[in-house]
Amino acid sequence: MGQRSRHSHSVHVCRRILGATALGYGTWSTQLPPLAESQTLEVVVPPLVPPTSTFISRIATPAYVAGGVAIASYATMAVTGALALVAQSSANKACQGQSGFCADPDGPGDASRARALAWASTVALGVALVSTAVAIAWPRKRASVPTLGTTSVGVGPLGVMGTF
Fold first, then answer.
1. What is the per-residue pLDDT across 25-64, written as a single tens digit (0 to 9) for each?
2. pLDDT class for 109, splitting at 50, 70, 90?
3. Which of 45, 155, 153 is nearest to 164 (CA)?
4. What is the pTM for the complete model shown?
5. Across 1-150, where does the E strand assignment appear?
6. By the 8 A CB rule, do 59 and 137 touch?
7. What's the distance, CA 97 to chain centroid?
8. CB of 152 within 8 A of CB of 22?
9. Interatomic CA distance for residues 42 and 163, integer angstroms
10. Burial of 117 by CB count in 10 Å (0-12 exposed, 13-18 middle, 19+ buried)?
11. Going along 23-108, which residue ranges are E strands?
12. Which helix (H) or strand (E) holds 129?
């Protein structure tokens, strides 16, 4: 049987990683070699990759204009369509039958107004559909946003450098 040593030995396995990061820059890291007590090590951190601009996508102004035209056209379509229905109902009451005889003198005017409003409603629908398609299909513009940040260099989770 072997003898037990009266001295206790402890083994600590520790990986020391030195790293440098900066917001918008690349990262750099290296593993440090084991150092004796009070031994120092000079580490040169290479320049980090230069910052890059971040691009974001924004809706272009013409798309907003086309969207506004579409909304106005849908509203116009709804109002002129409702007015056309009211005018047509009035013309149907004033003029009865297929003969086209109108007992009320306002009947022919109501029928003509109903046709004009129906056409206006149909045209407004066409403009609304085209404007909607343009607003959706208009290319988005890319805007460059510079990335700013601070640089920190450290060892381990505490982010400190020192003598090992």
1. 777 888 878 777 777 778 788 887 766 566 677 888 999 9
2. confident
3. 155
4. 0.53
5. 16-22, 28-32, 54-58, 141-145
6. no
7. 58
8. yes
9. 10
10. buried
11. 28-32, 54-58
12. helix 107-137
